[in-house]
Write a structure and sequence with these properties.
alpha/beta; Beta-Lactamase; Rossmann fold; 13 strands
């Protein structure tokens, strides 16, 4: 019988599993897709749908041609995206690593610093597959160990599962518990939260609600798609009409606490994490208010505490590399 667990045990570094009806199964290991000696036939898809896509999720897939869910199996956690390609069933399954099995994060002190914040906005950014979800989970895990707070998570779907420790943690799922992220944030404000986690900020309505929550004394942790911290600031500001952008800059300069942006660089079969961190300072707040975003990176390069650019992190990691490899890395970061 088809088993995701057997695949993961055989390929412990796999991050994704791809199935297309009638084609061989492929796994992504260290950024590369590897074909397996397994054909994703009708019986495999019937099993997956029967097991994980009943009820509303199956209805969503039939109506929209795509749907998401998540589940645990054999001690592993998976995020499952089912979609149709020209009428053919297709699945992309992300393997979510256990936090206990991961090596320590090199920015453990920054993670604890973010977890200790009482209010404000923290953005976790990066492209798809860069580890945003795992970094956010590390921060939540730190909160759960450090603080007696009420933490409400708004997700699509629920990925890492948490058991309340010091913190009371409620994980709400889009479509099942709320319709839109903006609705979920507004509802959370009536649920006595200390911390609100937003699975993804994509539209101005969600951003406006998140900024309001941060303005009213809550800590808001949210993910976004951007490859640099300054780019995330620009994305938030330009999500709003031109006549509102000055006001948004004022609010953002007041509530923003930190931004991380990260990428994976593939080298010799290894995925190397490159992360930059912006920490709010009076100087950076002034630049955001004045619309001088292009100057922020020079302040980040001053290396105040955890703050750094992704380029400075890359230089530190590649110090002992050959010049040819350093040039490849520099080209990758452009």
């Amino acid at each position: 019988m088809f088993s995701l667990v057997h695949i993961i045990k055989k390929y412990p570094k796999a991050t994704d599993i791809h199935l297309t009806r009638g084609e061989v199964v492929r796994v992504r290991v260290n950024g590369r897709l590897t074909p397996l000696n397994i054909v994703a036939d009708a019986s495999i898809f019937d099993y997956l749908i029967r097991t994980y896509f009943q009820g509303e999720k199956l209805k969503e897939f039939r109506e929209r041609g795509a749907a998401d869910t998540s589940f645990s199996e054999g001690g592993y956690r998976f995020r499952f995206h089912l979609y149709s390609v020209r009428g053919v069933g297709t699945a992309s399954i992300r393997v979510l690593p256990s936090l206990k099995q991961l090596p320590p994060d090199s920015d453990e002190e920054w993670i604890k610093e973010v977890a200790s914040l009482a209010s404000g906005l923290v953005l976790i950014t990066g492209p798809t597959g860069s580890g945003k979800t795992t970094l956010l989970a590390r921060i939540i895990d730190a909160v759960n160990k450090l603080k007696s707070v009420h933490l409400i998570m708004l997700e699509d779907p629920v990925e890492y599962e948490f058991i309340s420790g010091k913190a009371l943690i409620h994980q709400r799922e889009k479509e099942r518990d709320f319709l839109k992220f903006s609705d979920g944030i507004r509802a959370a404000l009536r649920e006595d939260p200390d911390i609100i986690v937003v699975g993804e900020m994509r539209d101005s309505e969600t951003m406006r609600a998140a900024l309001l929550a941060a303005e009213t004394g809550h800590l808001v942790l949210a993910t976004m798609h951007s490859s640099r911290a300054v780019e995330a600031i620009s994305r938030v500001v330009h999500a709003f009409p031109a006549d509102e952008q000055d006001e948004i800059r004022m609010v953002l300069s007041s509530v923003l606490r930190s931004i991380s942006a990260q990428l994976f660089y593939k080298r010799e079969g290894e995925s190397i994490l490159l992360r930059e961190i912006l920490m709010m300072t009076p100087a950076i707040a002034r630049l955001i208010r004045d619309g001088r975003d292009e100057q922020i990176r020079s302040y980040m390069g001053l290396s105040q505490g955890s703050m750094r650019t992704i380029e400075s992190r890359a230089r530190a990691i590649s110090r002992t590399w050959e010049e040819k490899e350093k040039q490849k890395l520099a080209i990758f970061l452009k």
